[in-house]
Design goal:
single chain; 237 residues; alpha/beta; 41% helix
Length: 237
């Protein structure tokens, strides 16, 4: 079978040594958790905190971003704003993320989307989210729904993240937490444990291989073409 459309200088067989024999990092998986509500008793935050406790028990290093004070995108501020810089620094630091949002009007909250919108697809020569793992969670005031997690999956894919298969959706969240803000034992809590276990496993499997996992033929080809253009331009001057 011939493939005349291929650029042979950019195309190559899978490098099994590079894929399977990456150096293994020994530091704890670094996980950033974002949540989508500023209410004093925010169930997306409470469920995110439960996720953080589970991740810590699994050996991860966990950090939270408090979105209070984060400005709207394009509202007269730029990436130098302290809250934007804090968020972007945490995104650079982490190897995986958890996004936990309420479902409001059949969608993730505006606050959740604002946090994601402030995360750049590229910053200089670095793509902050590419190849990092992602787990998505949502809480609902009524019956179970998956609108918010489905939207966040779309965004995770767009940002070239490795969104894990499992997810958490907590219906009637007000019934699932006690007065101290701790989640009661239930199958819904067990699902969060499942999701966090899966997130840590995927993070450990991929964090040292992500550069190769997301290495793309089309981008290698484009880079080669750009290099050739520069070389030809230099030769002509």
């Amino acid at each position: 079978m011939t493939t005349p459309q291929l650029d042979e200088t950019s195309f190559s067989a899978i490098d099994y040594d590079r894929l399977m024999s990456a150096a293994i990092s020994t530091h704890p998986p670094r996980i950033l958790i974002l949540y989508g509500s500023l209410r004093a008793r925010s169930f997306s935050r409470l469920s995110a905190e439960e996720a953080g406790r589970i991740l810590t028990a699994l050996g991860a290093e966990v950090r939270f971003f408090n979105p209070s004070g984060l400005p709207l995108v394009d509202d007269g501020v730029d990436a130098s704003h302290p809250k934007v810089r804090e968020l972007r620094d945490l995104v650079t630091w982490c190897e995986g993320m958890v996004w936990s949002s309420p479902e409001r009007h059949g969608a993730m909250t505006g606050l959740m989307k604002t946090q994601i919108d402030w995360i750049p697809l590229s910053e200089g020569a670095v793509r902050p989210t590419q190849g990092k793992t992602l787990a998505v969670m949502q809480v609902s005031g009524g019956s179970q729904s998956f609108n918010a997690v489905n939207q966040m999956r779309v965004l995770g894919r767009w940002m070239r993240m490795l969104t894990i298969p499992n997810q958490s959706s907590i219906p009637k969240a007000f019934q699932e937490f006690d007065e101290a803000g701790r989640m009661r034992p239930s199958p819904l809590y067990d699902r969060i444990v499942d999701v966090m276990e899966e997130l840590v496993k995927f993070t450990l499997l991929t964090r040292d291989r992500k550069a190769y996992l997301v290495d793309r033929y089309s981008e290698r080809k484009e880079t080669a073409a750009a290099l050739m253009k520069r070389v030809n331009l230099s030769a002509a001057t």
